[in-house]
Design brief:
alpha+beta, SH3 type barrels, 3 helices, 5 strands, 26% strand, rod-shaped, transport, protein transport, Sec translocon accessory complex subunit YajC, translocation, membrane
Length: 111
C-alpha cells in the first residue's frame, strides 16, 4: 500500500513546483482580444463613422441607393427621415440610415 501512494506523490510533486508567472498565463487571452479588436471591431467602427458622415451630408437633389436597392433622388430632408423620388410623382419616405450609397450626379439619368 505504501508503493502506490508514493507513486502518486512522485507524479504530483513536479507539477506543483513548476508554476509559472501568472502574467504569462494571461498573455495569450489578452493578445487574442487585441488582435480581435484590430481585425473585427475597429474596421466596423470606421465604417459606421463614414456612414454617419455620409448621411449627415445628404442634400436635396442627391442621388442615392437604399439598403433595399431602390435608387432615387432626395426630395426632402427631415430630422430622421428623407423623402426620395424614385419615379416622376412617386415619392417614398425612408429613414436616413437606410441610405447605403450616394451616387454621382447624373447617374440615374444615364440608366
Amino acid at each position: 500500500m505504501n508503493l502506490p501512494m508514493s507513486f502518486v506523490m512522485a507524479q504530483a510533486a513536479p507539477a506543483a513546483g513548476q508554476q509559472g508567472n501568472p502574467l504569462f498565463s494571461l498573455a495569450l487571452p489578452i493578445l487574442l482580444l487585441v488582435v480581435m479588436f484590430f481585425v473585427m471591431i475597429r474596421p466596423q467602427m470606421k465604417r459606421q463613422k463614414e456612414h454617419r458622415a455620409m448621411v449627415s451630408a445628404l442634400a436635396k437633389g442627391d442621388e442615392v441607393v437604399t439598403n433595399g436597392g431602390i435608387a432615387g433622388r432626395v426630395d426632402e430632408i427631415g430630422e430622421s427621415f428623407i423623402t426620395v423620388e424614385i419615379a416622376p410623382n412617386v415619392k417614398i419616405k425612408l429613414q436616413k440610415g437606410a441610405v447605403q450609397q450616394v451616387l454621382p450626379k447624373g447617374t440615374l439619368k444615364s440608366s
